[in-house]
Specification:
It is a single chain. This protein is mainly β and 157 residues long. The chain has one domain: Nucleic acid-binding proteins (OB fold (Dihydrolipoamide Acetyltransferase, E2P)). The strands form two sheets. The chain has a five-stranded antiparallel beta sheet, with no helix packed on it.
C-alpha cells in the first residue's frame, strides 16, 4: 500500500515493533523570549498591550487575539494578582504520594488579560480562596535561569 492510499478497514493497518527516535527543542518565540528575559534579568512580569482592544496580555504575545493587531507596547504589570482558580496535587510526577500537597493556582495579574499557572506558597490549603490577593516571589537573581520557575511561587498579600 502506498502512503497516498486511504486506509478504510482496520485489517489494512500494520504494527511495527521498535523505537522511533524523536528529537526536538522547544523555543519561546520572540514574545516568549522577551517575557522570560524580563523575569530572569529584572524580576518583572511584562504584558503586551493592545491599543485597540485596551487589553494587556499576560503572558505577553505578539498579536492581539481579538483584533489581530501587532502588539508593540510592553508594560510591567507588577507582581500582584488574584487566585482565579486552584487545585491541590497529592502526587509527585512519578505518582508517589506527597507528605503535603502542592498547591497550584491560575493567577490573574492585576490589570492583565490571561494569567499564569503557578505554585502557591506560604499558605495552607485551608486558607486558600478564589479571589485571594497574591504576589510573586522571585528567586535570587543569581539563581534565575530564564523560565517560569524563576518565580518561586505566589504568596498571599
Amino acid at each position: 500500500m502506498s502512503p497516498l492510499e486511504k486506509i478504510v478497514q482496520t485489517t489494512q493497518t500494520k504494527s511495527l515493533q521498535g523505537d522511533i527516535p524523536v528529537y526536538g527543542q522547544y523555543t519561546f518565540g520572540v514574545a516568549g523570549e522577551r517575557f522570560f528575559r524580563e523575569i530572569k534579568d529584572n524580576a518583572r512580569i511584562m504584558g503586551a498591550t493592545c491599543k485597540s482592544c485596551n487589553l494587556t496580555y499576560v503572558p505577553a504575545r505578539l498579536f492581539c487575539e481579538r483584533c489581530f493587531n501587532k502588539l508593540e507596547d510592553w508594560v510591567d504589570v507588577g507582581k500582584r494578582g488574584v487566585v482565579h482558580t486552584y487545585t491541590l496535587s497529592y502526587l509527585d510526577l512519578d505518582e508517589n504520594r506527597l507528605d503535603k500537597p502542592v498547591i497550584l493556582a491560575m493567577v490573574q495579574l492585576d490589570g492583565a488579560y490571561g494569567g499564569l499557572v503557578h505554585r502557591l506558597g506560604e499558605v495552607t490549603p485551608e486558607k486558600i480562596r478564589i479571589g485571594m490577593p497574591v504576589e510573586a516571589v522571585f528567586k535570587a537573581k543569581a539563581e534565575r535561569e530564564g523560565s517560569i520557575l524563576d518565580i518561586k511561587y505566589f504568596k498571599p498579600c
